[in-house]
Automatic annotation (TrEMBL):
Renumbered residue ranges of the record's region Disordered: 1-30
Protein name as annotated: Uncharacterized protein
Biased composition (Polar residues): 1-17
Amino acid sequence: MSTGINRSRNSSVSTELSFRGNKKSSPRLPSINFKSTKDALRGAIAQSLDAASKALVELRNLRDDHQAGEVDCSLVDYLRKKMLALLMMLDAMNISSVSWIMFSCCYPRRTVCSSQRVLDLSSRCPREDMVSVTGPISISVLTSGALGAGRNAANYDIQIGGRSSNVVSVFDKNVISSLGNSKWFARVDMPHGNVPYHHINVNKAITGVKDPHIPISATTAKAAGVAGKVLIVVNRISPYLTVFALVYNGYQLGKSVIVDLNNGTTRNTLKEVARIVISLVGGIGGSVVGASEGTRLFPGVGTLVGGVAGSIAGGAGGVYVLDPLLESALDDLKLDILEVECTECQKVFECRKYEIGDVKKCEACRTSDDLPRIPELKEMVMPVWLKIRSKL
Protein backbone atom coordinates (compact mmCIF):
# COMPACT_ATOMS: atom_id res chain seq x y z
CA MET A 1 0.00 0.00 0.00
CA SER A 2 2.91 2.34 0.69
CA THR A 3 4.09 2.15 -2.91
CA GLY A 4 0.61 3.15 -4.07
CA ILE A 5 0.51 6.17 -1.75
CA ASN A 6 3.86 7.45 -3.04
CA ARG A 7 2.67 7.32 -6.63
CA SER A 8 3.01 10.72 -8.28
CA ARG A 9 0.30 12.86 -9.86
CA ASN A 10 1.95 12.40 -13.27
CA SER A 11 1.76 8.61 -13.11
CA SER A 12 -1.94 8.89 -12.27
CA VAL A 13 -2.58 11.09 -15.29
CA SER A 14 -0.59 8.77 -17.57
CA THR A 15 -2.60 5.83 -16.25
CA GLU A 16 -5.80 7.68 -17.08
CA LEU A 17 -4.57 8.41 -20.57
CA SER A 18 -3.75 4.76 -21.14
CA PHE A 19 -7.29 3.86 -20.05
CA ARG A 20 -8.68 6.53 -22.34
CA GLY A 21 -6.87 4.98 -25.27
CA ASN A 22 -8.58 1.63 -24.69
CA LYS A 23 -11.72 2.12 -22.64
CA LYS A 24 -12.87 -1.48 -23.02
CA SER A 25 -9.88 -2.82 -21.12
CA SER A 26 -9.30 -2.71 -17.38
CA PRO A 27 -6.36 -3.39 -15.07
CA ARG A 28 -5.96 -7.17 -14.88
CA LEU A 29 -4.84 -8.74 -11.65
CA PRO A 30 -2.15 -11.44 -11.84
CA SER A 31 -3.46 -14.94 -12.56
CA ILE A 32 -3.55 -17.38 -9.67
CA ASN A 33 -1.84 -20.77 -9.78
CA PHE A 34 -1.52 -22.02 -6.22
CA LYS A 35 -0.95 -25.56 -5.01
CA SER A 36 -3.58 -25.57 -2.27
CA THR A 37 -6.96 -24.04 -1.58
CA LYS A 38 -5.58 -22.36 1.54
CA ASP A 39 -2.82 -20.63 -0.40
CA ALA A 40 -5.29 -19.68 -3.12
CA LEU A 41 -7.61 -18.09 -0.60
CA ARG A 42 -4.82 -16.12 1.05
CA GLY A 43 -3.48 -15.00 -2.30
CA ALA A 44 -6.91 -13.96 -3.54
CA ILE A 45 -7.59 -11.88 -0.45
CA ALA A 46 -4.15 -10.29 -0.57
CA GLN A 47 -4.54 -9.38 -4.24
CA SER A 48 -8.01 -8.00 -3.66
CA LEU A 49 -6.81 -5.85 -0.77
CA ASP A 50 -3.91 -4.59 -2.84
CA ALA A 51 -6.20 -3.78 -5.77
CA ALA A 52 -8.66 -1.99 -3.49
CA SER A 53 -5.94 0.10 -1.83
CA LYS A 54 -4.41 1.05 -5.18
CA ALA A 55 -7.82 1.99 -6.51
CA LEU A 56 -8.37 4.16 -3.44
CA VAL A 57 -5.09 5.99 -4.06
CA GLU A 58 -5.92 6.45 -7.75
CA LEU A 59 -9.36 7.73 -6.85
CA ARG A 60 -7.98 10.33 -4.47
CA ASN A 61 -5.31 11.52 -6.90
CA LEU A 62 -7.64 11.66 -9.89
CA ARG A 63 -10.28 13.46 -7.87
CA ASP A 64 -7.75 16.20 -7.26
CA ASP A 65 -6.81 16.22 -10.96
CA HIS A 66 -10.46 16.36 -11.95
CA GLN A 67 -11.04 19.35 -9.70
CA ALA A 68 -8.14 21.04 -11.47
CA GLY A 69 -9.82 20.32 -14.82
CA GLU A 70 -7.03 18.00 -16.03
CA VAL A 71 -8.81 14.66 -16.46
CA ASP A 72 -12.15 13.20 -17.39
CA CYS A 73 -14.46 11.86 -14.65
CA SER A 74 -15.11 8.45 -16.27
CA LEU A 75 -12.05 6.82 -14.72
CA VAL A 76 -12.98 8.17 -11.31
CA ASP A 77 -16.36 6.47 -11.58
CA TYR A 78 -14.75 3.23 -12.77
CA LEU A 79 -12.22 3.13 -9.94
CA ARG A 80 -14.84 3.98 -7.34
CA LYS A 81 -17.08 1.13 -8.45
CA LYS A 82 -14.17 -1.30 -8.68
CA MET A 83 -12.89 -0.36 -5.24
CA LEU A 84 -16.32 -0.55 -3.61
CA ALA A 85 -16.97 -3.95 -5.16
CA LEU A 86 -13.71 -5.36 -3.82
CA LEU A 87 -14.15 -3.86 -0.37
CA MET A 88 -17.74 -5.12 -0.13
CA MET A 89 -16.56 -8.63 -1.00
CA LEU A 90 -13.86 -8.54 1.66
CA ASP A 91 -16.27 -7.11 4.22
CA ALA A 92 -18.88 -9.84 3.65
CA MET A 93 -16.29 -12.66 3.66
CA ASN A 94 -18.71 -15.56 3.28
CA ILE A 95 -18.45 -18.62 1.03
CA SER A 96 -19.97 -16.98 -2.03
CA SER A 97 -17.86 -13.81 -1.74
CA VAL A 98 -14.64 -15.81 -1.26
CA SER A 99 -15.48 -17.79 -4.38
CA TRP A 100 -16.19 -14.52 -6.19
CA ILE A 101 -12.83 -13.05 -5.09
CA MET A 102 -10.91 -16.05 -6.41
CA PHE A 103 -12.83 -15.95 -9.70
CA SER A 104 -12.48 -12.21 -10.18
CA CYS A 105 -8.72 -12.36 -9.56
CA CYS A 106 -8.40 -14.46 -12.70
CA TYR A 107 -11.19 -12.74 -14.66
CA PRO A 108 -11.63 -9.24 -13.19
CA ARG A 109 -13.82 -7.96 -16.02
CA ARG A 110 -16.50 -10.61 -16.39
CA THR A 111 -18.52 -13.11 -14.40
CA VAL A 112 -21.45 -15.36 -15.17
CA CYS A 113 -24.67 -15.06 -13.17
CA SER A 114 -27.25 -17.77 -12.54
CA SER A 115 -29.02 -17.11 -15.83
CA GLN A 116 -25.73 -17.42 -17.78
CA ARG A 117 -25.72 -13.75 -18.72
CA VAL A 118 -22.33 -12.01 -18.79
CA LEU A 119 -22.00 -8.95 -16.61
CA ASP A 120 -19.59 -6.12 -17.31
CA LEU A 121 -18.07 -5.03 -14.01
CA SER A 122 -16.96 -1.67 -15.32
CA SER A 123 -20.55 -0.55 -15.92
CA ARG A 124 -22.55 -2.10 -13.08
CA CYS A 125 -22.77 -1.09 -9.45
CA PRO A 126 -21.17 -3.29 -6.74
CA ARG A 127 -24.46 -4.58 -5.41
CA GLU A 128 -25.45 -5.90 -8.85
CA ASP A 129 -22.05 -7.52 -9.28
CA MET A 130 -22.38 -9.57 -6.10
CA VAL A 131 -24.25 -12.40 -7.84
CA SER A 132 -23.93 -15.82 -6.24
CA VAL A 133 -23.33 -18.52 -8.84
CA THR A 134 -23.53 -21.55 -6.57
CA GLY A 135 -26.06 -20.38 -3.99
CA PRO A 136 -29.28 -21.96 -5.35
CA ILE A 137 -27.53 -25.24 -6.20
CA SER A 138 -25.88 -25.46 -2.75
CA ILE A 139 -29.24 -24.96 -1.04
CA SER A 140 -30.79 -27.55 -3.35
CA VAL A 141 -28.06 -30.06 -2.46
CA LEU A 142 -28.90 -29.56 1.23
CA THR A 143 -32.65 -29.87 0.63
CA SER A 144 -32.58 -32.89 -1.66
CA GLY A 145 -29.81 -34.58 0.36
CA ALA A 146 -31.88 -34.28 3.54
CA LEU A 147 -34.87 -35.62 1.62
CA GLY A 148 -32.94 -38.68 0.39
CA ALA A 149 -31.50 -39.38 3.84
CA GLY A 150 -34.97 -39.07 5.39
CA ARG A 151 -36.45 -41.55 2.89
CA ASN A 152 -33.68 -44.04 3.69
CA ALA A 153 -34.21 -43.69 7.44
CA ALA A 154 -37.97 -44.16 7.02
CA ASN A 155 -37.65 -47.32 4.90
CA TYR A 156 -34.47 -49.11 5.96
CA ASP A 157 -32.40 -50.16 8.97
CA ILE A 158 -28.73 -51.16 8.76
CA GLN A 159 -26.94 -53.63 10.99
CA ILE A 160 -23.20 -54.29 11.12
CA GLY A 161 -22.27 -57.90 11.84
CA GLY A 162 -24.72 -60.32 13.42
CA ARG A 163 -23.79 -63.91 12.64
CA SER A 164 -20.12 -64.72 12.30
CA SER A 165 -20.35 -64.58 8.50
CA ASN A 166 -22.39 -61.36 8.24
CA VAL A 167 -20.66 -58.13 7.22
CA VAL A 168 -23.61 -55.75 6.86
CA SER A 169 -27.37 -56.30 6.61
CA VAL A 170 -30.14 -54.04 5.37
CA PHE A 171 -33.67 -54.46 6.78
CA ASP A 172 -36.85 -53.28 5.04
CA LYS A 173 -39.14 -51.53 7.55
CA ASN A 174 -42.11 -51.92 5.22
CA VAL A 175 -42.01 -55.74 5.39
CA ILE A 176 -42.73 -57.04 8.89
CA SER A 177 -42.30 -60.61 10.09
CA SER A 178 -44.82 -62.53 12.22
CA LEU A 179 -42.81 -61.49 15.28
CA GLY A 180 -43.23 -57.79 14.42
CA ASN A 181 -39.64 -57.27 13.27
CA SER A 182 -38.42 -55.83 9.97
CA LYS A 183 -37.35 -58.51 7.51
CA TRP A 184 -33.86 -58.45 6.08
CA PHE A 185 -33.74 -57.30 2.47
CA ALA A 186 -30.09 -57.79 1.46
CA ARG A 187 -26.95 -58.89 3.23
CA VAL A 188 -23.22 -58.97 2.54
CA ASP A 189 -21.63 -62.20 3.79
CA MET A 190 -18.15 -63.65 4.09
CA PRO A 191 -17.45 -67.18 2.80
CA HIS A 192 -19.38 -69.87 4.70
CA GLY A 193 -20.80 -73.35 4.22
CA ASN A 194 -21.48 -74.12 0.59
CA VAL A 195 -20.60 -70.58 -0.57
CA PRO A 196 -16.79 -70.33 -0.42
CA TYR A 197 -16.56 -66.67 -1.53
CA HIS A 198 -17.72 -63.22 -0.41
CA HIS A 199 -21.22 -62.61 -1.72
CA ILE A 200 -24.51 -60.67 -1.49
CA ASN A 201 -27.64 -62.44 -0.29
CA VAL A 202 -31.09 -61.19 -1.33
CA ASN A 203 -34.29 -62.20 0.50
CA LYS A 204 -36.69 -64.05 -1.80
CA ALA A 205 -39.62 -63.19 0.54
CA ILE A 206 -39.21 -59.51 -0.44
CA THR A 207 -37.91 -59.62 -4.01
CA GLY A 208 -39.66 -62.76 -5.22
CA VAL A 209 -36.35 -63.82 -6.77
CA LYS A 210 -34.32 -66.80 -5.60
CA ASP A 211 -31.22 -65.73 -3.67
CA PRO A 212 -28.52 -65.43 -6.38
CA HIS A 213 -25.55 -65.31 -3.97
CA ILE A 214 -23.96 -62.53 -6.02
CA PRO A 215 -20.15 -62.99 -5.84
CA ILE A 216 -18.02 -60.00 -4.80
CA SER A 217 -14.40 -59.53 -3.82
CA ALA A 218 -13.14 -59.36 -0.24
CA THR A 219 -12.22 -55.71 -0.77
CA THR A 220 -15.74 -54.90 -1.96
CA ALA A 221 -17.23 -56.67 1.05
CA LYS A 222 -15.00 -54.66 3.38
CA ALA A 223 -15.95 -51.42 1.60
CA ALA A 224 -19.63 -52.35 2.00
CA GLY A 225 -19.08 -52.71 5.74
CA VAL A 226 -17.53 -49.24 5.93
CA ALA A 227 -20.35 -47.80 3.83
CA GLY A 228 -22.84 -49.46 6.17
CA LYS A 229 -21.32 -47.69 9.18
CA VAL A 230 -21.55 -44.36 7.37
CA LEU A 231 -25.17 -45.03 6.40
CA ILE A 232 -26.05 -45.79 10.02
CA VAL A 233 -24.75 -42.34 10.99
CA VAL A 234 -26.64 -40.72 8.10
CA ASN A 235 -29.86 -42.45 9.20
CA ARG A 236 -29.39 -41.20 12.76
CA ILE A 237 -28.80 -37.59 11.81
CA SER A 238 -31.42 -37.49 9.04
CA PRO A 239 -34.12 -35.94 11.31
CA TYR A 240 -31.73 -33.12 12.22
CA LEU A 241 -30.77 -32.63 8.57
CA THR A 242 -34.44 -32.42 7.65
CA VAL A 243 -35.18 -29.82 10.32
CA PHE A 244 -32.11 -27.80 9.35
CA ALA A 245 -33.09 -27.92 5.66
CA LEU A 246 -36.63 -26.77 6.47
CA VAL A 247 -35.40 -23.91 8.66
CA TYR A 248 -32.77 -22.80 6.14
CA ASN A 249 -35.22 -22.89 3.24
CA GLY A 250 -37.66 -20.90 5.34
CA TYR A 251 -34.91 -18.39 6.08
CA GLN A 252 -34.05 -18.01 2.38
CA LEU A 253 -37.72 -17.64 1.50
CA GLY A 254 -38.13 -15.02 4.23
CA LYS A 255 -35.19 -13.04 2.86
CA SER A 256 -36.72 -13.09 -0.63
CA VAL A 257 -40.07 -11.93 0.72
CA ILE A 258 -38.41 -9.03 2.58
CA VAL A 259 -36.51 -7.95 -0.54
CA ASP A 260 -39.70 -8.06 -2.60
CA LEU A 261 -41.67 -6.14 0.02
CA ASN A 262 -38.94 -3.51 0.14
CA ASN A 263 -38.67 -3.23 -3.66
CA GLY A 264 -42.39 -3.60 -4.41
CA THR A 265 -41.80 -6.74 -6.51
CA THR A 266 -42.69 -10.46 -6.53
CA ARG A 267 -39.92 -12.02 -8.63
CA ASN A 268 -37.51 -13.02 -5.85
CA THR A 269 -40.24 -14.82 -3.90
CA LEU A 270 -41.48 -16.55 -7.04
CA LYS A 271 -37.99 -17.79 -7.90
CA GLU A 272 -37.37 -19.02 -4.33
CA VAL A 273 -40.66 -20.94 -4.23
CA ALA A 274 -39.87 -22.44 -7.65
CA ARG A 275 -36.43 -23.51 -6.43
CA ILE A 276 -37.88 -25.25 -3.37
CA VAL A 277 -40.49 -27.06 -5.47
CA ILE A 278 -37.90 -28.13 -8.05
CA SER A 279 -35.57 -29.38 -5.29
CA LEU A 280 -38.33 -31.45 -3.66
CA VAL A 281 -39.82 -32.89 -6.85
CA GLY A 282 -36.40 -33.56 -8.37
CA GLY A 283 -35.17 -35.02 -5.09
CA ILE A 284 -38.08 -37.46 -4.80
CA GLY A 285 -37.80 -38.57 -8.41
CA GLY A 286 -34.03 -38.85 -8.22
CA SER A 287 -34.24 -40.83 -4.98
CA VAL A 288 -36.58 -43.40 -6.53
CA VAL A 289 -34.44 -43.77 -9.66
CA GLY A 290 -31.18 -43.82 -7.69
CA ALA A 291 -32.43 -46.45 -5.23
CA SER A 292 -33.64 -48.62 -8.11
CA GLU A 293 -30.32 -48.36 -9.92
CA GLY A 294 -28.38 -48.93 -6.71
CA THR A 295 -30.41 -52.07 -6.03
CA ARG A 296 -29.60 -53.39 -9.50
CA LEU A 297 -25.87 -52.81 -9.03
CA PHE A 298 -25.47 -53.69 -5.34
CA PRO A 299 -28.64 -54.74 -3.48
CA GLY A 300 -28.89 -53.37 0.06
CA VAL A 301 -26.04 -50.95 0.55
CA GLY A 302 -26.30 -49.79 -3.07
CA THR A 303 -30.00 -49.15 -2.56
CA LEU A 304 -29.35 -46.63 0.21
CA VAL A 305 -26.32 -45.00 -1.42
CA GLY A 306 -28.19 -44.71 -4.72
CA GLY A 307 -31.20 -43.20 -2.96
CA VAL A 308 -29.17 -40.36 -1.42
CA ALA A 309 -27.02 -39.79 -4.52
CA GLY A 310 -30.04 -39.84 -6.81
CA SER A 311 -31.93 -37.43 -4.58
CA ILE A 312 -29.07 -34.93 -4.63
CA ALA A 313 -28.54 -35.33 -8.38
CA GLY A 314 -32.26 -34.94 -9.09
CA GLY A 315 -32.78 -31.89 -6.89
CA ALA A 316 -29.56 -30.03 -7.66
CA GLY A 317 -29.63 -31.06 -11.32
CA GLY A 318 -33.18 -29.81 -11.65
CA VAL A 319 -32.25 -26.43 -10.21
CA TYR A 320 -29.12 -26.25 -12.37
CA VAL A 321 -31.11 -26.88 -15.54
CA LEU A 322 -34.39 -25.12 -14.79
CA ASP A 323 -33.19 -22.05 -12.85
CA PRO A 324 -31.59 -20.39 -15.94
CA LEU A 325 -34.67 -21.30 -18.00
CA LEU A 326 -36.96 -19.74 -15.41
CA GLU A 327 -34.76 -16.64 -15.26
CA SER A 328 -34.86 -16.33 -19.05
CA ALA A 329 -38.64 -16.76 -19.14
CA LEU A 330 -39.14 -14.09 -16.48
CA ASP A 331 -36.83 -11.77 -18.45
CA ASP A 332 -38.92 -12.36 -21.57
CA LEU A 333 -42.04 -11.46 -19.58
CA LYS A 334 -40.24 -8.35 -18.26
CA LEU A 335 -41.39 -9.26 -14.74
CA ASP A 336 -40.19 -6.48 -12.40
CA ILE A 337 -37.97 -5.03 -15.16
CA LEU A 338 -38.60 -1.40 -16.05
CA GLU A 339 -37.43 1.02 -18.72
CA VAL A 340 -36.51 4.16 -16.78
CA GLU A 341 -35.19 7.56 -17.87
CA CYS A 342 -32.21 8.67 -15.82
CA THR A 343 -32.92 11.81 -13.84
CA GLU A 344 -29.38 13.11 -14.43
CA CYS A 345 -28.35 12.24 -18.00
CA GLN A 346 -31.87 11.52 -19.38
CA LYS A 347 -30.61 8.21 -20.77
CA VAL A 348 -33.18 5.38 -20.85
CA PHE A 349 -31.84 2.32 -19.03
CA GLU A 350 -33.08 -1.09 -17.92
CA CYS A 351 -33.88 -1.13 -14.20
CA ARG A 352 -34.08 -4.58 -12.66
CA LYS A 353 -36.35 -3.49 -9.87
CA TYR A 354 -36.28 -6.86 -8.11
CA GLU A 355 -32.49 -6.52 -7.66
CA ILE A 356 -31.85 -2.83 -7.01
CA GLY A 357 -35.25 -1.35 -6.26
CA ASP A 358 -36.96 1.52 -8.05
CA VAL A 359 -33.86 3.60 -8.79
CA LYS A 360 -34.04 6.66 -11.02
CA LYS A 361 -30.40 6.88 -12.10
CA CYS A 362 -28.52 4.78 -14.65
CA GLU A 363 -25.40 2.76 -13.86
CA ALA A 364 -23.08 5.58 -14.92
CA CYS A 365 -24.76 8.19 -12.72
CA ARG A 366 -25.83 6.37 -9.58
CA THR A 367 -23.79 5.51 -6.51
CA SER A 368 -24.32 2.97 -3.77
CA ASP A 369 -26.17 5.65 -1.77
CA ASP A 370 -28.88 5.73 -4.45
CA LEU A 371 -29.77 2.07 -3.84
CA PRO A 372 -32.45 1.36 -1.21
CA ARG A 373 -31.28 -0.39 1.93
CA ILE A 374 -32.73 -3.88 2.39
CA PRO A 375 -33.38 -4.65 6.08
CA GLU A 376 -31.94 -7.90 7.42
CA LEU A 377 -34.30 -10.69 8.36
CA LYS A 378 -33.33 -10.42 12.02
CA GLU A 379 -34.25 -6.73 11.98
CA MET A 380 -37.77 -7.75 10.97
CA VAL A 381 -38.09 -10.77 13.26
CA MET A 382 -36.45 -9.56 16.48
CA PRO A 383 -39.02 -6.85 17.34
CA VAL A 384 -41.83 -9.39 16.89
CA TRP A 385 -39.98 -11.96 18.97
CA LEU A 386 -39.29 -9.49 21.76
CA LYS A 387 -42.92 -8.44 21.79
CA ILE A 388 -44.07 -12.07 22.02
CA ARG A 389 -41.52 -12.76 24.73
CA SER A 390 -42.73 -9.80 26.79
CA LYS A 391 -46.26 -11.23 26.74
CA LEU A 392 -45.12 -14.59 28.12
